[in-house]
Amino acid sequence: MAKSSNKKSATEKMSPKERERLEKAKQQLQAKRKKAQKARTTRNITIGVIVVAALVAIGLIGGVLWSKKSSSKAGGASYSQSVKSNKGIVLSKDGVGKRVKGLPNVELYSDYVCVHCLDLEQAIGHDLVQAAKDGKINLIFKPVVTMSSHYSWGFPAATAALQVASKQPQKFVDLHFALTDQVLKDAKEGRAESSLTSIEEGKKEVAQVAKEQGIDQAVIDSFDVDKTKDTLQAWTKDWVNSGLTDKKSYGTPMLVRDGKVIQAKSFKDMLEQATK
């Protein structure tokens, strides 16, 4: 099993009252997303697939997979060869973008604005990363689209992650956790409605997070949300057609070890199965 990280998550630093407010904010955010999702069906946005999280047994429900009518091609975004060939971001003991032969491959399918993906990151995200750094696994971050509000904040966040992994890989892990912490911070401060439902606010906030993490301005300037949108929709289509499960629905968070979906009753159990 991976060693626990000494780094405290954003939620661990909160007081009980702050955690209670955060949980209420999450619930309110989910309710607003569901309401917005229904409204979008009248504006030519197609609801693609209702996805159910892999951890139904413990109520970890993911988002609603949506897609606009778009090309199945990857949109020509400028990513590293590793990102393109893996359709995601590889992390191993050798660094970002470097898969180590002979190690188990653990794929994490997630969405930056999926509430339960954030729960997973807070619970075992640092431990999964540490397991990769310790040479126990190759960890592959597989961003997919499972939230109808993804265009406003999730796409900018995924854009930043993919571009930084491609062009400034040594900064990827810090940026990844900074992005997940930012969503939680927005919810805690009651700002989730503006930052997660406005594309311009989402772009500005993600750029600011990247700047605070020391990402080069040239890399930030290369963030292209439209091209990332096409890429992620293509990757998501590949995912739901992958045959990873015999079910018709796919959901996030999903952990897959060497081609087999991890079925678990808790995040701790997921971690143990992923890093054994």
From TrEMBL:
Annotated transmembrane regions: 45-66
Sequence segments annotated as region (Disordered): 1-37
Pfam families membership: Thioredoxin_4 (PF13462)
Domain named Thioredoxin-like fold: residues: 105-271
Keywords, in A-Z order: Membrane, Transmembrane, Transmembrane helix
Record's keyword annotation contains Metal-binding: no
Sequence ranges of Basic and acidic residues compositional bias: 9-26
Listed CDD domains: DsbA_family (cd02972)
Signal found in the keyword field: no
Protein name, per record: Thioredoxin-like fold domain-containing protein
